[in-house]
Design brief:
With 282 residues, the chain is of the alpha/beta class. Helix content is 33%, strand content 30%. It contains eight helices and 13 strands. A seven-stranded mixed sheet has the order 7-6-5-8-9-10-11. It has a four-stranded antiparallel sheet with strand order 2-3-1-4, with helices on one face. The longest helix is centred in the last third of the chain and has 24 residues.
Length: 282
């Protein structure tokens, strides 16, 4: 491990940055970047540090002790991550190729620091996409037993040591039991009309209502449908000249964009979660 990202959340107090960074310096840890934020209404301090530990004078155990010592001193939640280590990411999909292909191509181009050991679907429609890119494809049909289908997926995720699950237009609702096993490790995308246009054919109903702005939201999945902490959002203006198909095409473009940005933020450890909110350092 040559580079780490450190997340720190604690009650706001004087001298946090000075105390922490001074100790990093004393242990020959070089700070590459540092970002901080204070929630004044709650008196909460957030900090993300990206650091080079190549020359630090601590071994891994001593570094963990250093972190634990500051947890006590600051009454803090502190986590650290290996910045350069690729994360194992699984893609769950149904029939839509666009968002799946976008993730694969960005990963192959070096834009996503991850491995993709598996693409998982309840249909066989996208097996050719996986085969073209030498990614294992797993087809788990639901039939009449969704619980068994989820158990099969969970077993595979465990075997593949998956750290992040991306729902790339996976048109199924995951059970609370499934979600609880991967808290803040499942990212989903939905059209930005929610909750006004929940359910099927949202773009058709948006067109019928004459909407003037469409968008998309990427968020972590919780047991409450589409209510998880928001990671990324974007919108685009539309007019009465847009047909339903043009609305759909524009919306899908936004969905792919925000999904990619959300996945990037997660893989680069830029997201701190506080209650139902995300603090994202860019």
């Amino acid at each position: 491990m040559n580079e780490v990202v450190i997340h720190l959340i604690c009650p706001d107090q004087k001298g946090i940055i000075a105390r922490f960074t001074n100790q990093l310096y004393n242990n020959k840890i070089n700070i590459i970047s540092l970002e901080q934020h204070v929630e004044s209404d709650e008196n909460i301090f957030f900090m993300r540090i990206h650091a080079d530990i190549t020359n630090m004078n601590l071994d891994q155990n001593a570094f963990s002790d250093f972190i634990n010592d500051f947890k006590k001193k600051l009454n803090a939640q502190i986590d650290y991550y290996d910045y350069l280590k690729p994360i194992n990411m699984a893609i769950l999909c149904t029939k839509e190729e666009g968002p799946v292909l976008e993730l694969i191509l960005k990963q192959k181009a070096g834009k996503l620091n991850c491995n993709i050991p598996a693409i998982i679907s309840n249909h066989e429609s996208l097996s050719d996409v996986a085969n073209r890119h030498n990614i294992d494809y797993y087809h788990f049909p639901i039939a009449n037993d969704k619980q068994n289908q989820e158990e099969q997926i969970l077993n595979l995720l465990h075997d593949k040591k998956i750290d992040l699950i991306v729902l790339a237009r996976y048109m199924q609702i995951l059970s609370p039991e499934f979600v609880s096993k991967y808290s803040n490790q499942i990212i989903n995308i939905h059209h930005g009309f929610l909750p006004a246009f929940k359910g099927s054919k949202p773009y058709h109903r948006a067109w019928e209502k004459g909407v003037k702005m469409i968008g998309a939201t990427a968020h972590y999945v919780t047991s409450e449908l589409d209510e998880g902490p928001i990671i990324e959002q974007d919108v685009e203006s539309v007019t009465h000249h847009f047909s339903v198909n043009e609305l759909i095409e524009t919306g899908r473009d936004i969905e792919r964009k925000v999904l990619l940005l959300a996945v990037q933020a997660h893989l680069e450890h830029k997201i701190l979660i506080h209650k139902k909110r995300t603090i994202i350092f860019h």
